[in-house]
Design a protein that fits this description.
With 429 residues, the chain is an alpha+beta fold. Helix content is 31%, strand content 26%. The chain has three domains: 92 residues, Rossmann fold (3-Layer(aba) Sandwich), CATH 3.40.50.20; 68 residues, Dna Ligase, domain 1; 238 residues, ATP-grasp fold, B domain (D-amino Acid Aminotransferase, Chain A, domain 1, 2-Layer Sandwich). A hairpin with a 3-residue loop joins strand 11 and strand 12. The longest helix has 21 residues.
């Protein structure tokens, strides 16, 4: 099969890497890809936002399956365009992608289906939002309605922070039209967990659990980012939690979508807060997580390609996934200043040395080759993943690998999965 992977980040490198292992995989295209995807497939210089050019390329090159990585093209309706040309694409339609593209759509759907989530108020007028903050109980979470690269969520500790956030989102349009409407909701207390499910419209197949680290700095300090690391399995997830999750979240969600005439086919990724009262939905995503994918796929023993095909063909209930029981820890190496302004074009060294380590896999994100040299080309540059018998073992391996990689002003968190190790030590003591 000829496969096209759309996107240029670490998630897309991980997807291409995993799909390349399939016995059914003949040729891998990545659009636009990065320096890492170029080593396992053929990079095509088409941006993920140029939907018409991507459809044209898939038709002209007789691509058998297209896998869409980022949320933006899904929200723009790329799967609908492919379907209109009788091309197979993995991902939800534009209508179904609203579950991520509009936090207000998701919140209203959850309300209708009584899915456990944070209490929230919705605003399309900044004056009303500001008046609400005068009587709100702080802290509150303020979310841009639309897509904002994982950065449109602000925890406001007081009225002043809330007012400035509303001003930036709604009036200064910091996130463009994504902040035209906002959601203000209560802060949920607990620990976060990421779950992924292959959904074929009516049925679903859960992947292994993971936890990501969204804040830029150690100790969960600094601004929200697209994700600075992840580990799998999540240390706050178990079978006891899975039953209420499926009964109160997954099944009602799919039922509500179908009642609204929406058949979700693709990857559904609920971000959860595990509270003292059980799982609560923070948000829904309609694509593979980044960097969770870089932690999950190295643990997946099964061939990914037939699973994606079965999802499209509404046969996911006939599938099962075999997992490596070892733990995975992923650390993201970023450019200094990320998620704000950062410099690109820094030379990267040490990758070959790090890649020689056993059970270590390096996924490229913001990288490019220039004059035969590997350079930084984005905020998140690399995602380094290691497998280990325990989370502690995987942590030691991944940070050993990270210590061998160098580029000017490299920024990364040194506490990825540390809380899981500390929790294990506490259990044993």
């Amino acid at each position: 099969m000829k496969i096209l992977v759309i996107g240029s980040g670490g998630r897309e490198h991980a997807l291409a890497w995993k799909l390349r292992q399939s016995s059914h995989s003949e040729r891998i295209f990545c659009a636009p890809g990065n320096a890492g995807t170029a080593e396992i497939g053929e990079n095509i210089p088409i941006p993920a936002s140029d939907l018409e050019a991507l459809v044209r390329f898939a038709k002209e090159n007789r691509v058998d399956l297209t896998v869409v990585g980022p949320d933006d093209p899904l929200a723009a309706g790329i799967v609908d365009l492919f379907a209109a040309e009788k091309l197979r694409a993995f991902g939800p339609t534009k209508s179904a992608a609203r579950i991520e593209a509009s936090k207000i759509f998701a919140k209203e759907l959850m309300r209708a289906q009584k899915i456990p989530t944070a209490e929230a108020s919705i605003f399309s007028n900044s004056s009303e939002a500001l008046r609400y903050c005068e009587r709100a109980k702080f802290p509150v979470v303020i979310k841009a309605d639309g897509l904002a690269l994982g950065k449109g969520v602000i925890v406001a500790a007081d009225t002043a922070t809330a007012r400035s956030t509303i001003e930036e989102m709604m009036n200064q349009r910091r996130f463009g039209n994504a902040g035209r409407r906002i959601v203000i909701e209560e802060v949920l207390r607990g620990t976060e967990c990421s779950l992924h499910a292959l959904v074929d419209g009516k049925n679903y197949l859960l992947l292994e659990s993971a936890r990501d680290h969204k804040r830029a700095l150690d100790g969960d300090q600094g601004p929200n980012t697209g994700g600075m690391g992840a580990f799998s399995p999540a240390n706050n997830w178990n079978r006891k939690l899975q039953a209420p999750f499926e009964a109160e979240i997954m099944r009602p969600l799919l039922r509500g979508l179908l009642r609204g005439g929406i058949q979700f086919r693709g990857l559904l990724y609920p971000g959860l807060m595990i509270t003292s009262e059980g799982p609560r939905v923070l948000e829904f995503n309609c694509r593979f997580g980044d960097p969770e994918t870089q932690a999950l796929l190295p643990r997946m023993k099964s061939d990914l390609l037939p699973l994606l095909e079965a999802t499209i063909d509404r046969k996911i209930d006939t599938c099962a996934i075999e997992w490596d029981m070892r733990a995975a820890v992923t650390v993201v190496l970023a450019s200094a200043g990320y998620p704000g302004k950062y410099e690109a074009g820094k030379s990267i060294s040490g990758l070959e040395n790090a890649a020689k380590l056993e059970d270590v896999q390096i996924f490229h994100a913001g990288t490019r080759r220039a004059a035969g040299e590997l350079k930084t080309a984005g905020g998140r540059v690399l995602a380094v993943t290691a497998l280990g018998l325990t989370i502690e073992d995987a942590r030691e391996r991944v940070y050993d690998a990270v210590s061998r990689i160098h580029f000017e002003n490299c920024q990364y968190r040194r506490d990825i999965a540390l809380s899981a190790v500390a929790a294990n030590i506490e259990k044993l003591s």
